[in-house]
Design goal:
The complex is a heterodimer. By secondary structure, chain A is an alpha+beta fold. Chain A has seven helices and four strands, in the order E-H-H-H-H-H-H-E-E-E-H. Chain A has a three-stranded antiparallel sheet with strand order 2-3-4. The longest helix of chain A has 24 residues. Chain B is elongated, with a radius of gyration of 22 Å. Strand 1 of chain A pairs parallel with strand 1 of chain B, so a sheet runs across the interface.
């Protein structure tokens, strides 16, 4: 099983200083036009349609092709193409900016406040944020086994590692790691840590909480 | 000396007779080839053309060729299982009446490629990785650092085994 570790180093500098009070929070002092337009347009959009639009937006952010999904939505609602364009581009911008924030800076409460300012349905917004983030490791257990004897080798004495990873999205993964693969993992993690260190040293603007 | 690792079954007896009769010239190459692919037992079979070439090269009928190939594979698997020394292998084979030159060929091939083959068997994980799926996980710097420390602990345990 391959677990890909994605380290989020200090990302773009987004002053998340005071969020509420009409400053737009993570979107900066001026809310982008398309986000405003989207917020207004969403008043008439039903929950189901909103969910589908959300899905399309997330797919677009992940680089997937969404032409067909958008067509489907257009056909099944009575939104004009123009309206759809506003909605999707607004949601896209909103999410893209929110996702540029480093994990530690992103605080649910503050985000909810920001969304309220934009008159967005709060619940759906945060649900989306959770879905776009990758889960992190909640619990990590391991075991080193040694195979004494197998059908191929009377005296094998071959070590292997068993891992159990519980993630924040509720899933659990139990898998065996051959020693060679384990060395690869250890090497790559060390490499990423080194790169993170280098990045943080070089980063002029450090996000402080 | 280890107990006999190659039982004298009817198949083995017949295989030995056939082996003793084949041309010793190409024999070493055949042994090396089989030894290299031993750990892939499932896909070891030669292609149709290769089989036909072998039949001609060793003057063996299809059935007999199969028997010979099976026997050689079995002998080599036993050598792996018991981690035989080349000399032991040769002795064992001569004791079941394989000609000395052929037994020596086995010993030489085993001496040359035996350890490598044993290593390949060692690495062969019992759980085939067919349920492989990709899982994406996110780590902050701090989280990754903690994870790394756990990996180092595991490594320390591995080191204490040797």
């Amino acid at each position: 099983m391959a677990a890909v570790a994605v380290g989020k180093a200090a990302g773009a500098a987004y002053g998340h200083g005071e969020s509420s009070g009409g400053s737009g929070g993570f979107l900066g002092p001026r809310v982008p036009a398309e986000v405003e337009a989207m917020a207004r347009g969403l008043q008439e959009v039903g929950k189901e349609t909103f969910r589908r639009l959300l899905k399309v937006t997330v797919n677009a952010l992940e680089g997937k092709d969404c032409k067909d999904s958008v067509k489907l939505i257009a056909e099944s609602t009575d939104l004009s193409e123009e309206q759809l364009a506003f909605l999707i581009s607004g949601m896209y911008t909103l999410l893209r900016e929110a996702l540029r924030l480093p994990l530690s800076t992103f605080k649910q409460e503050v985000f909810k406040e920001d969304l309220k300012e934009l008159r967005r349905p709060v619940s759906e917004g945060t649900a989306l944020m959770q879905a776009s983030r990758l889960p992190n490791v909640q619990d990590f257990k391991w075991r080193v086994d040694v195979a004494i004897s197998t059908s191929s080798l009377a005296r094998a004495l071959q070590p292997s590692i068993l891992m159990l990873m519980k993630l924040s999205d509720g899933t659990a993964h139990r898998f065996e790691v051959p020693v060679a693969k384990f060395q690869e993992l250890r090497y790559n993690v060390a490499l990423i840590l080194k790169e993170m260190n280098d990045l943080e040293k070089r980063s002029i603007l450090k996000i402080q909480d | 000396m280890a107990a006999s690792v190659v039982p004298e079954t009817d198949s083995i007896r017949r295989a030995v007779l056939l082996l003793n009769a084949v041309d010793p010239g190409r024999f070493p190459r055949l042994l090396s080839r089989l030894l290299q692919r031993l750990h892939l037992k499932a896909e070891t079979s030669f292609s149709e053309e290769e089989e036909e070439k072998l039949q001609i090269a060793f003057s063996l009928e299809k059935q007999d060729l199969h028997l010979v190939l099976e026997a050689i594979s079995f002998i080599l698997e036993q050598a792996v299982y018991h981690n035989l020394k080349p000399a032991s292998l040769q002795q064992q084979l001569q004791s079941i009446h394989l000609d000395q030159d052929k037994a020596e060929a086995f010993a030489n091939a085993w001496a040359a490629g035996g350890q490598e083959t044993i290593e390949k068997f060692r690495q062969r994980v019992l759980t085939p990785q067919k349920n492989l799926k990709k899982v994406f996980v996110e780590f902050s710097h701090q989280e990754l650092f903690e994870f790394y420390n756990k990996l180092e602990t595991i490594q320390a345990q591995l080191d204490s085994l040797t």
